[in-house]
Amino acid sequence: MDLAYLWFFIVGVLFVGYFVLDGFDFGVGMSLPFLGKTDLARRQIINTIGPVWDLNETWVIVAGACLFAAFPEWYATLFSGFYLPLLLILLALILRGVSFEYRHRAEDDAARGRFDWMIVIGSAVPALLWGVAVGNIVQGVPLDADHEFTGSLLTLLNPYGLWVGVTTLLLFFLHGVYFIGLKTDGEVHDGAQKLGKQLAIPTVIFAAGCVVWTIVIAAGREAPLLWAVIACGVIAAVALLASVAFNWIDKDGKAFAAGAITIVFAVLTLWLALFPYVMPASNDMANSLTIENASSTDYTLTIMSWAALIFLPLVLAYQAWTYWVFRKRVTRSYIEKASAVAH
């Protein structure tokens, strides 16, 4: 296989990893107003991702770096044309990270409340805008002959882009609620299971619409991997329904696992619908960026391939070890004891 095509799929896998891992972080953050009725409950919720949220976020850094090195033309077009949405995502992630680190230093409930809302906003904004960005990449945007974006912010706020954005927001929200159910006990755990049941119907509706719409777009471009797009879409739909069923019968681990599989195949549905383009031009397909005309030289891709072969297994091993160390539930009694010690 040509290295450029190989790296198209490697970058896709990195974004899959990011959306699965940081996806439930976003969902946990968005759940605070619904499940965090007391400061103790909010601390219990936040502590479910306390040891791992920053590690999960590194996946987007690695994905962005690989995108820059493997497909510089794609990177340049994407980051210049999507500058404002990507800037808002970055600011939201900074807002969320600062809140995680400084919330416990707040001296009163009002200050902690402000940090809590910063976490909510810093989780919801990326969950929505990542979907809008990916939706526009898949659908295509207006490009000139030099592969420069010729639209505006309003161009990106089109029906399909917004539909994908709402879908990712709901999927991440549900994924995070499943994670809270898996990692907590008591009122927070029970509330997470109830909230998951309430989120099920709108999430299924938007996800189904997203899959069908994406297949229609891929079919209209006569995508060579249309069969794989359809297969991934069907698997994502089945996994989502399975996660809803598992949550309904209080199987927290299976619900979370099925939710993760949903996101994996939902992202693959979008990614494979894009192939062999990396940035289709909606105004003139001749102006499109493809895997071949957007990629780096074979020499660069060869060096990257060796680096990935050596370092990627080490990163995966370290992340797996981290999750193993922090695998236990964050119980209410643990938070109470920690609070007593702090005071």
TrEMBL record:
InterPro entries: Cyt-d_oxidase_su2. GO terms for cellular component: cytochrome complex; plasma membrane. It is found in: Cell membrane. The keyword Ligase does not apply. Keywords: Cell membrane, Electron transport, Heme, Iron, Membrane, Metal-binding, Transmembrane, Transmembrane helix, Transport. It is a multi-pass membrane protein. Its main location: membrane. The keyword Electron transport applies. One of its GO terms (molecular function) is electron transfer activity. Belongs to the cytochrome ubiquinol oxidase subunit 2 family. This is Cytochrome bd-I ubiquinol oxidase subunit 2 apoprotein. It comes from Microbacterium telephonicum.
